[in-house]
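Hey,
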Amino acid sequence: MEKSKSTVYKVVLTAVFAALVFVSNMISIPIPVAVGNVSRIHLGNIFCLLSGLILGPIGGGLAAGVGSALYDLTNPAYIASAPFTFLFKFAMAAICGWVAYAGGRKGANHRWNLIGSVCGSVTYMVLYLGKSFIQSMMLGNALEAALIALGTKAVTSVTNAAIAVAVAVPLYAAVRLALKKSGMIEKLS
């Protein structure tokens, strides 16, 4: 019976974090680029990393991927990118959670949480920027135009990553303390 309760808590918390990722993606500042979709500074990556830190690699990956893909599906500018977004954001949170939880740490080591958050953010940036460059070249854009657009997206991505890591890691410490005091940490294990 305890195992099924733990599973229910994990599923519910995964859904809650998917909703947080979805809503936080709406809080954004658009940045125009020379070629392709508008890039943007947004708060979604904070909750992608936070989901990986709280839920671990699988639950966190699902919350980040589903929440981000649902956002893309509700925005005509991003709808075609939804499958890629699911995979890339899943990878971001999963790698963050994997590093934070490896070796039995279970997200309890601040240094490894920071390293995991940076690794997850870098993974996302490589995937996103790689896709953007390939897509731009496949659309027949000149190399120079593709590189200019990629530069703008890279600056935006680095800014998003820095904000996400700077906010998610200390926020996780506070949330983990609250979860521990409420007994939820044990229920999620």
